[in-house]
Amino acid sequence: MTNRRLRRWVWLVVWLLVPALLVGCNRRGGGTHHNGSSGNSDSSGRSGGADGPDLGDLPVPDLGSTDGGAGGSTDDQERTSDGSGETAPAAEPSPESEPEPASEPRADPVPTDPTEDAFRAVAQGTCIPTYRDGKDWVVPAPPPAVSCQTQRGELFFVTRVADSSSACPSGPGRDAWTYSSSVTGNTTAVCLNRVWVKNYCVLAEQYGDNTSIGTTTSVRCDATRVPAPYNQVLVIAGAYQVPSTGADTSNCPTGPGDNRRFWSVYADDGRTLVCFTVRG
């Protein structure tokens, strides 16, 4: 009885082990393997059982192939593999870089001349203190403007600023103070008309019975030496508006007892009579 039961248990165990052995053989390659079977594949691309080959370690097929093989790319855009089993878009060819526009040459700075700037800065209608010392102007550039009512003997009214002395009116008491710049090549002319102030002195040149007055000059009334060609110092005795009936040197004496010798000029285009006399 005991042997019979033992044999039954043996056959039961054999009967249970045979199917298991058959299944194991099939997994190890004994059966037929079909591509695309869903029983032993997942979305990662691995196939086979736990002991089967890892397809992730196999060479990755060229997904850019157009031979119709499995895994061939249907995308028109060329793709490359990064070796991880995934594909990445190929880098687009960089557009041809446009050449940078040629930089324009820097213009040379415009040359400047401070003295010319001072001449150009003189404003028409103002008065500046200056004079000629017998030939030249006593300062190299126009000084700042002052009130035209200033009581001084070296005062000129600015009639205009021009590019040439030919643009300046001429006549007694008028002058063109010009400056030609060696830096810019420009010429500037400040047109001046003297403001006559009584009791200030000017230079004069006496030759025979004639006397030439330097109407744009100025000198100390007590000067003992004068620059050539001048040889005399005269005092401004007065400046008078010429009436419609006219005026001349005979109108210079201040009264019947004034016996001084006088000289006169017509300034301001004949509208002003300027009288001069010897220093007393």
Can you put this structure into words, describing what you see?
This protein has 280 residues and is of the alpha+beta class. Among the domains are: 111-195, no CATH class; 197-280, no CATH class. The chain is 13% helix and 23% strand. It has two helices and eleven strands. The chain has helices at 2-30, 114-120, and strands spanning 79-81, 87-89, 127-128, 156-162, 174-180, 187-194, 201-207, 210-213, 232-241, 262-267, 272-278. It has a five-stranded antiparallel sheet, with no helix packed on it. It starts with a helix and ends with a strand. Residues 34-45, 52-65 have a biased composition (Low complexity). Residues 29-116 are annotated as: Disordered.
Summary, kept brief:
Among the domains are: 111-195, no CATH class; 197-280, no CATH class.
